Q: What sequence folds into this?
């Protein structure tokens, strides 16, 4: 391959990763998280941990496929997809739990927000969510990866993962900004928006399981 074509293929990995971040299950998982922690640093922490889990699993599965000819059995990927649905339902109910907790603990909200980063550093949920998404979507993602030389494969996966991380962070940042505006100007609308996210996540998870 020429230098130009190699750069084009590798750049394609970044673009595909950016669009892959906006898969509906990724977006919903990010949305339910951001609605609770709409500050810049927590969103960045989530995106990094999710991207590490997602990219790490893809790198491991891709390397196993490219170098050893080993790939996950279809039944395993199928149950991973079902687990994604269960996860979305859990995230939806967690949103409602967050709303109810805030109503009873409004006086402690400011103190809790100061501890968000400290808590998130020890919270590996985003990492596990990213790994699960990586396993569930591995078949379709690895299928669209170009047939690269071994030295290019790792760069391509890295760029793909960077695209996913960037896409998740940008989406989370925009959603967090919008939620902050709603909280400042119309708390009732913010609560309605949050409830809609919870219902959407539960509904999507249910459809995901039975589709």
A:
């Amino acid at each position: 391959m020429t230098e130009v074509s190699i750069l084009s293929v590798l750049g394609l990995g970044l673009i595909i990763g950016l669009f892959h971040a906006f898969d509906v299950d990724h977006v919903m998982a990010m949305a339910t998280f951001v609605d609770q922690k709409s500050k810049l640093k927590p969103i960045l922490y989530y995106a990094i941990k999710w991207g590490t889990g997602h990219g790490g699993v893809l790198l491991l599965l891709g390397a196993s496929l490219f170098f050893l000819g080993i790939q996950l059995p279809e039944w395993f990927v199928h149950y991973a997809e079902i687990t994604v649905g269960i996860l979305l339902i859990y995230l939806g109910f967690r949103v409602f739990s967050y709303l109810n907790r805030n109503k009873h603990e409004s006086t402690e909200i400011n103190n809790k927000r100061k501890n968000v980063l400290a808590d998130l550093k020890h919270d590996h949920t985003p990492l596990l969510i990213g790994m699960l998404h990586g396993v569930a979507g591995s078949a379709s993602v690895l299928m669209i990866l170009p047939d690269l030389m071994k030295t290019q494969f790792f760069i391509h996966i890295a760029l793909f993962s960077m695209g996913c991380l960037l896409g998740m962070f940008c989406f989370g940042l925009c959603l967090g900004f919008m939620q902050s505006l709603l909280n400042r100007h119309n708390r009732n609308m913010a609560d309605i928006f949050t409830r809609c996210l919870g219902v959407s996540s539960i509904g999507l998870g249910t459809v995901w399981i039975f589709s």
Notes: The chain has one domain: 3-210. Confidence is low (pLDDT under 50) at residues 107-111. Residues 3-210 form one domain. The radius of gyration is 19 Å.
